[in-house]
Specification:
By secondary structure, the chain is an all-alpha fold. The protein is built from eight helices and no strands. The chain has two domains: 44 residues, Arc Repressor Mutant, subunit A; 131 residues, Tetracycline Repressor, domain 2 (Orthogonal Bundle), CATH 1.10.357. Helix 4 runs antiparallel to helix 8. The chain starts with 8 loop residues before the first helix and ends with a helix.
Amino acid sequence: MARTTGSHSDITGPKVREAALRLFAQNGFAAVSMRAIASEVGVQAGALYNYTPDKQTLLFNLLSTHMEQLLDASIDDLSQSPIDRLRHFVDFHIRFHADRPDEVFISYMELRNLSADNFSTVEALRRRYEDRLEGILQSGADAGDFVIADTKIATLAVIAMLTGVNTWFHAGGRLTLDEVIAQYWDMVRKAVVAG
């Protein structure tokens, strides 16, 4: 029998993804076997293939789902000023990622383990998200509100800075998330705002 008694696809499928996410973040994609994922979930290794054809597909689904959720949740209100749009982006990016440290970690550290086609798909999703920020920065530069020599470099720098919060922030630490966001907004604003 491949499936543990009492397991159901609507319960076990998400457990497989959660276990893979946790194990990939803790140990790295290459070090995690399908058998280890199955053990974590409490099913036999062969049962995993009811939920994913292979480990590569599982990694791809985790990375692409993270990016799709990020894109779906982010909103850029074009009726706002570029400075307000940028402030909203900073706030949104930090808050969205604060609750997803494992997703953020594997999204950056495990890209190299995707097949070429899967890498291209995830990179396209990442570019769509980066393009949203670059559009905000370009609008601010065009309006004379921002002074930016290269909007692409500024985009990558801001995203790297904001995403870096996940490497050190912990709820219950010295600063609240709101205090962290306020300080990061101040740094981003000073980096791009004219005068």
